[in-house]
Amino acid sequence: MTLPVTQTELLAGIKDGSIVPYLGPGVLADVRNTATGVPMPATSEELILAMNSGRPMAPKLMYEFPRAAMHVELKRGRAAVTKFLDATYGTTQWSRAAVHDWLKALQPGYVIDINRDTQLLDSYAGVPHLLVQGCARIGGTDYRFRLYQYDGRDYRTVAPEQAPEGLPVLFKPMGAPRPQSSYIASDADYVDYITELMGGFAVPSFVKRLRQGKRYLFLGMRFTRDTERMVMKDLIYGAGSPAGWALIDSPTDKERRFLTRLGIEILPVGISWLLDQLDCSAAQASNACA
Q1: Residue 86 burial by Cβ neighbours in a 10 Å radius (0-12, 13-18, 19+)
Q2: What range defines the domain where residue 228 resides?
Q3: Does residue 2 fall inside a structural domain?
Q4: What are phi and psi of 265, to 5 degrees?
Q5: Which residues contact 135 (CB under 8 A, 6 or more apart)?
Q6: Residue 280's pLDDT band (boundaries 50, 70, 90)?
Q7: How far is CA 75 from CA 71, 84, 166, 246, in A?
Q8: I need a surface site. Which of 39, 171, 174, 199 has the fewest CB within 10 A?
Q9: Domain for residue 107, yes or no?
Q10: Does residue 1 lie in a domain region?
């Protein structure tokens, strides 16, 4: 099968900063609870089942996690959703995802991760960086993000205009339990966040400059739900041409049409196609990747 781009070209682009990894739920498919072996809930359906003690919810709520989270928020309060996500991603011990070990070895200068876990942060432990964490429905500020600077040991809040240049930027638009618990989870969160994203208030100004002309590599992402499509479309505003590539081994017609409109080429392969190349790069000296 001939693809429009090679693994070597993608890796080179990630290393030089011209290609930005964009991580979806599929990158966590190999993560397990270190005590029980239970998979980490990452996809919409997995999160709904985990939030409801393993039981399916009504079909209309099973459609998408934000809808189910809104239902829980209305019945039990916002704290119930936050408590669930904190317990899931902030207290349980998880094995490492192969993609995150891959990123740890590459240390890209800019990464977008729409998952709510902390593995990306762990991949940059000890490495000074900036963290942009999405938030919604907060008063007293025009921003829909929290910005932190990590000095290699601790995180501290920093104003966008004070953010130092040259540090790697980790963008967690849907939030995370660390360094301060904050999430985009329910329908109401997404309505607020996407509105502010479209208005330019959910992205720091230095990221707006940084992202101009970038191309994106979508890993573990599916584009069958409107919420994730709308978030992605605004986060990659100002992308280069082509806008990027999406690794989807069995894309739907809906995904093909949507990605084609944005100038994103589909590579009908799995994530392992790319991860194998890193192993090969390390083994070239011994001719192990003939």
Answers
A1: middle
A2: 7-286
A3: no
A4: -90, 135
A5: 144, 145, 146, 175, 182, 183, 184
A6: very low
A7: 6, 14, 45, 37
A8: 199
A9: yes
A10: no
